[in-house]
Each structure stands twice: as C-alpha cells, then as structure tokens.
Design brief:
Distance between the termini: 77 Å
Number of helices: 2
Mean pLDDT: 78
Radius of gyration: 24 Å
Structural class: mainly beta
CATH architecture: Sandwich
Number of strands: 13
Order of helices and strands: EHEEEEEEEEEEEEH
Helix content: under 10%
C-alpha cells in the first residue's frame, strides 16, 4: 500500500529532482494549514495539470475527518498547496459523530466544505437524512441537505398523550364491561 503524507509529498521540487544543498524546498507544518494523510494502492502524479491521483482502497485523514473512496484526485497550486479533493466511488466520511456516504464527494481544503452527491445520506447521532446533496460545513459544525428525507431510526417508545389529556387520564384503565 502506498502511503504519502501530502505535506511532505508536495514539498518535493516540481521538476521531480531532489533539492540541492542550500535549496529550501521543505514545507514546515506551520506553513501548511491543513495537511492531509493519504494512503492507497496506487499513485499517479500529473505535474503539468497539478493533480495527484490515488486509487485502490483510498484512505485520507485531515484533522479529525476520515475519508475512504475508490479514487481520490488532489488539486494543488504552484506553491504545492492542496486546494481541492475529488473522491469518486464508494465514498464514506466520518468526523466525530457525523457520517456521510455517497458515490462522489468534493472537498474544499481551504474552507473545509465537503459536498457529497450520488444518492447521499448522512447521520449525526441518531438523526439519519437522505437527499440529493449533503454539505458539511466543518468550521461551522453544520450539515445542509438538499431535498431532504429524514429517517427516524429510534421512534419514541410510547406515543405522546393526547393534547387535552392529563397525566392521570393516561394512567386510568378502562373497566371491563359486563
């Protein structure tokens, strides 16, 4: 399995040659705002397009967010900063008690906004929602779902009493008629 720490990976020179003595090509962790650890079976780098493509059981981690998918495409700037990640096929994302699944995800590494599409669904605690698009706003700690359908996994054990009923009314049992 190929494993790269994106911060270290993108510290390499653009020409693919190792840095010469005196050249400062390394990026310190203080310079990279949101480093991403990516593992996969294969990696392809397309320097002219400024993309790196990981495929085969891809696992990525950014801060507290874990992501798995079949294929991941990282877009980066000329300064080697990962700006955007595309995840394709069997996408699953976890962050604390939040979870999402779909066929595709687009993640903006600068803003922390993740959009999941392709029959997406999301959970937060016991709340389970499906829609056409699930958007996680990491910095705001919110989830937005377009065309949402909510699924109640844990219905209440007892139905609520009627509006006009008192506590004593709900405890009274009807006497059998003779």
């Amino acid at each position: 399995m190929i494993e790269f720490f994106v911060m270290a990976f993108f510290a390499a020179s653009q020409s693919g040659r190792p840095a010469r003595d005196g050249d400062s090509q390394a990026i310190s962790s203080a310079e990279v705002k949101h480093p991403i650890d990516i593992k996969s079976e294969q990696l392809q780098i397309q320097e002219k397009k400024r993309i790196a493509i990981w495929s085969g059981h891809v696992k990525a981690k950014r801060d507290t967010t874990d992501l798995t998918c079949d294929r991941l495409i990282a877009h980066y700037t000329k300064d080697q900063e990962v700006t955007r990640i595309e995840c394709i096929g069997n996408v699953e994302v976890w962050d604390g008690n939040k979870w999402a699944r779909g066929e595709r995800a687009d993640f903006d590494n600068r803003t922390g906004i993740l959009e999941v599409t392709g029959s997406p669904e999301a959970k937060e605690g016991n709340n389970h929602v499906r829609g056409t698009k699930v958007i996680f706003y990491k910095e705001k700690d919110t989830i937005h779902v377009e065309n949402a359908t909510t699924i109640f996994d844990n219905p209440p054990k007892e139905p609520p009493p009627p509006k006009n009923a008192t506590k004593n009314d709900s405890k009274k049992k009807a006497k059998p008629s003779k």
